[in-house]
Write a structure and sequence with these properties.
Layout: H1 13-53, E1 58-64, E2 67-73, H2 77-82, E3 84-85, H3 106-111, H4 114-117, E4 123-125, E5 128-130, E6 132-133, H5 138-158
Antiparallel strand pairs: 1-2, 3-6, 4-5
């Protein structure tokens, strides 16, 4: 970021008015850059999540009062984020932040599903016998992409 020098002659009221205008311009410029930074970093996360989920999930940036939220929408987002069956990723950084339990068989335990009934060996979906759904970790990958690119994005936006 640039250094700014604001000269003030305390005995000259016009000097103080000019300084105030200059400071307000600087603050507005910083606010605009912060908005741009939030958008850029949000896009990085959105793109990483979309890349992980593929076409199965729609990932968007949702405007909020104080920034953006990366939102994933699709029929099986939780299964694609955390996996299912023997491939469930309960170590995903968001596993303890969602309003449901994430562990091998958690969905089947909650719904008294076929996976539980087969002693956590398989279930049927679409006429196929399934033992696992590999996690795609889209939101976790969004977080990782943001962390990896935050320094370069700061330099790009703020100079």
């Amino acid at each position: 970021m640039a250094d700014h020098v604001v000269d003030i002659d305390p005995l000259d009221p016009a000097s103080i008015i000019r300084a105030e205008k200059m400071i307000n311009k600087i603050l507005k410029d910083v606010d605009n850059k912060v908005e741009k930074f939030v958008q850029e970093i949000g896009k990085i996360g959105r793109d990483a999540a979309q890349g992980a989920y593929g076409n199965a999930v729609s990932v968007t940036l949702v405007e909020e009062d104080n920034g953006v939220t990366i939102s994933a929408d699709g029929k099986a987002v939780a299964f694609l984020e955390f996996g299912a069956g023997s491939s469930t990723n309960s170590a995903n950084r968001y596993a303890f932040e969602v309003p449901f339990l994430v562990y091998r068989g958690s969905y089947s335990d909650e719904t008294k599903g076929e996976y539980q009934a087969t002693h956590y060996n398989y279930w049927h979906f679409g006429g196929k016998k399934i033992t696992a759904v590999e996690p795609r970790n889209g939101m976790q990958k969004a977080y990782e992409a943001i962390v990896n690119d935050i320094d370069s994005t700061v330099k790009k936006v703020f100079g």
